[in-house]
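Table S2 (continued). Query chain:
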Amino acid sequence: MTLRTYIISRILLTIPMIFILLTMVFIIVRVLPGDPVLLHFEKAENPEAMEEMRRELGLDKPLWIQYLDYISGLFRGDLGKSMAPGFEPVAQQIFSAFPATLELAIFSMIIAVLIGIFFGVEAAKAYNKPTDHAIRIFGIVTYAIPVFFLGMIFQLTLGVGLHLLPVGLRKSPAMDAPVGLNIGGAQFSTGLYTIDSLLEGNIYKFVESLRYLFLPSLTLGLVLSGVFIRLTRSNMLETLRLDFVTAARARGLKERVVTYGYALRNAFLPVLTMMGLQFATLLGGAILTETTFSWPGLGRYIVDRINFRDYTAIQGAVVVFGIFVSIVSLVVDLLYAYLDPRIRL
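Corresponding output:
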């Protein structure tokens, strides 16, 4: 199978998967117990207003019509209206919260991969030695510890105790959000504070954004690093015994070049696959992390909307999460197939 055929077949497989996901989300949200409109009004003392709200949200229509409206709306980028006062479009609310979650996820993944690969390689090099045992215990502990508990430990020690880092929020209330790059009066902004502050050319905002980002991303990254430590260690143990590594050492190359330049390159493919699989876990962990650190992202948005039984907002946020994870998995699979032609056989 050529790479082009593989890409087309993989994309075609992703489409029904996303469609099933959208359908499952719609069904699960609808079978949840309780009347969201009744919860919104708390007491059924104003049936006219309740009926008006049902009409406004389309909840008075038959389920199959609601489903068709829901699917057709998704194709137009319409995720419905929030049940919060004002009936704001859900897509608009998600669009505001998603960059914060994306920024947190990217930095957490970077921390997890760097820690996981470094300690995994060092554990493989020191196989069955005290360093190997210590790193393995570290990996198990970091993966087993609840993310919110680790976050609170960091808050108490690095934030409250030593006053080194902020314990919550995404930026200081006294600091304006970075506005990005201004080109001929047109504003170009990514929503990621670290990127936007660099585009704005404001180093102070960049440093402040990193300070607020550090604790939540370190918390999430550390928890995920345990998986990468174990995976990197096991793959490196196999790779370091192969003939080409022995040949590289025989040529007199430095051990660092042999380890990171030759062996790690071959042991990295399973790690790459795991990065895609762990992204879903990362987004799930982001919900707890954002709640712990009052991070104004999509995870915290979902928790807030669940408290108000905001069906359309929950449905929209879960759909965005699911589509995003599906796209990341697709990209990782295509990258894997490009790097390792055996996948396409």
